[in-house]
Write a structure and sequence with these properties.
This protein has 257 residues and is an alpha/beta fold. It is built from 5 helices and 13 strands. It starts with a strand and ends with a strand.
Length: 257
């Protein structure tokens, strides 16, 4: 069964609004680190020259947010209260949400801003698929082509409140996008609010999670590699970070031949 990577990398060389730092401990440094630790903790002297090339193990030290790279947002990310009770953190979410049949909707012609329920209904009709409860939906907005650049965070398509409610009413509980956010870009949201005074334009996709418990996968990639719009399974298990509002994931599509 072919596996298709649907994840964008964590890369310290990418442009990010929250800087990613990645420090690599070399194998030579790893040997010194191990020897110093053995001496400090156990009082044991160890001569690293007996190791192959005087080397031990490398290590990587990173500083980043839980929303860097492809990640899953938990209900706790959307606020401290939900109409259904206390929103769960990422380590509390049911695993069976994250290994499910999936389908992809093509929104690449939508431009910067939001699309509504009618646009999603058309996209579903175009692929001739009947979504089932707990399916995972993937939104191909074309944003993945700009990963690593500043425009990735400013030029993409999000969902308005009607679009999210449409998907949630279908019983979907995991909504994925290749964009930075399931909502419109921050600048677009603020400008629209300033022009209209309508509070419903303020991050409706995220705040919908205060009414219905659901998760988002943000910053997907590789959706264009899917050979068909449905008939495959997606695995996107989030990293189990205790008490966190999100967890990184290596999202993968399992495509039967």
């Amino acid at each position: 069964m072919p596996l298709i990577d649907l994840s964008s990398p964590v890369d310290g060389e990418f442009w990010e609004p929250d800087t990613v730092t990645h420090t690599i401990m070399s194998a030579e440094e790893g040997a010194r680190h191990m020897a110093e630790g053995m001496k400090r903790v156990f009082g044991i002297d160890f001569d690293t020259s007996v190791l192959p090339d005087g080397e031990f193990l490398t290590n990587d030290f990173l500083t980043l947010t839980a929303h860097t790279g492809t990640h899953v947002d938990a209900p706790a990310h959307y606020g401290s209260r939900g109409t259904y009770g206390v929103p769960r953190t990422i380590d509390q979410m049911p695993l069976d949400w994250f290994h499910r049949p999936a389908f992809v909707l093509d929104l690449r012609d939508s431009g910067t801003g939001t699309v509504g329920a009618d646009r999603l209904r058309k996209a579903v009709a175009d692929i001739g698929y009947e979504p089932q409860p707990l399916d995972i939906v993937l939104l191909d907005t074309g944003a993945a082509a700009r990963v690593g650049t500043q425009s990735y965070f400013t030029d993409f398509t999000g969902l308005d409140g009607s679009a999210v409610r449409y998907l949630l009413d279908l019983g979907i509980r995991v909504i994925g996008t290749d964009a930075f956010s399931l909502d419109a870009p921050f600048g677009h949201i603020i400008k629209t609010f300033q022009e209209t005074g309508d509070r419903d334009v303020l991050w409706p996709a995220h705040f919908a999670g205060r009414e219905v418990e659901y998760c988002q996968i943000e910053r997907l990639a590789g959706l264009e590699s899917l050979p068909r719009p449905y008939g495959f399974t997606v695995s996107c298990f989030p990293v189990k970070i205790a008490r966190a509002g999100a967890g990184w994931t290596r999202a993968v599509a399992h495509v039967p031949e």
